[in-house]
Write a structure and sequence with these properties.
Elements lengths: L6 H5 L53 E5 L6 H7 L3 E3 L15 E7 L2 H15 L6 E8 L8 H11 L5 E4 L3 H4 L10 H16 L2
Parallel strand pairs: 1-2, 1-3, 3-4, 4-5
Length: 204
């Protein structure tokens, strides 16, 4: 009787098992780009007509946080009223006193196209070393209820990447009526306050 061909020994494979699928490879992850924590070299100052003024009536107490609105209607006064130890700057960079610690600044802007452009310009001023401040971050405040249009969402993400930290404040109907209660702030504001406390305590 002719010998039966042993396929397994001839090919080195077991004919009674199905070949296993190759193990899936992990998807390539895009590295997270760290946010800048200080101004950069080689950044040109923006056009002078678009810049935030470098004069302000804000207190020069270095312990305080100065809320700088990037444009009119940015929510500067509202934020300053809700953040303990904060002062508003009338849409201008705080004064820089010789020999003193740079003032701590929190930028804010609305999520309109013009508001985002104003925020971008302010961040460019800071990045170009046009102002000597300790920038804590940027707060973007919703200009209307609901989701942002895709173009504005994309623009906001790019702009946020130029700040040391960034926060989003959703549409809060009570603010439209001028009702702000520092004792019961919205959840997004509570998170902002927690993060600011961590930042300011860590830099002292």
């Amino acid at each position: 009787m002719a010998a039966k061909l042993n396929t397994a020994s001839a090919t080195g494979e077991n004919p009674w098992t199905q070949p296993t699928e190759p193990a899936p490879q992990p998807a390539e992850q895009t590295p997270i780009r760290p946010s800048p924590v200080k101004p950069h070299r080689g950044v040109d100052s923006p056009t002078a007509g678009l810049c935030i003024s470098e004069t302000s009536s804000a207190s020069d107490d270095e312990r305080l946080v100065t809320v700088v609105g990037c444009h009119g209607g940015s929510g500067e006064s509202t934020l300053a009223a809700l953040i303990p130890g904060a002062v508003e700057a009338s849409h201008a960079w705080p004064p820089i006193r010789s020999g003193q610690t740079p003032p701590r600044v929190l930028l804010c802007a609305r999520t309109t196209a013009s508001g985002l452009q104003a925020a971008s310009t302010a961040l460019t001023q800071w990045a170009a070393r046009q102002v000597a401040v300790e920038l804590l971050g940027l707060v973007l405040i919703a200009d209307a209820p609901g989701k942002l249009p895709q173009t504005l969402r994309d623009r906001a993400r790019v702009i946020e990447g130029g700040a040391p930290a960034a926060w989003r404040i959703p549409w809060i109907p009570a603010w439209r009526e001028g009702r702000t209660d520092a004792n019961t702030p919205p959840r997004a504001i509570r998170q902002l306050l927690e993060d600011l406390t961590t930042q300011t305590q860590g830099s002292t």
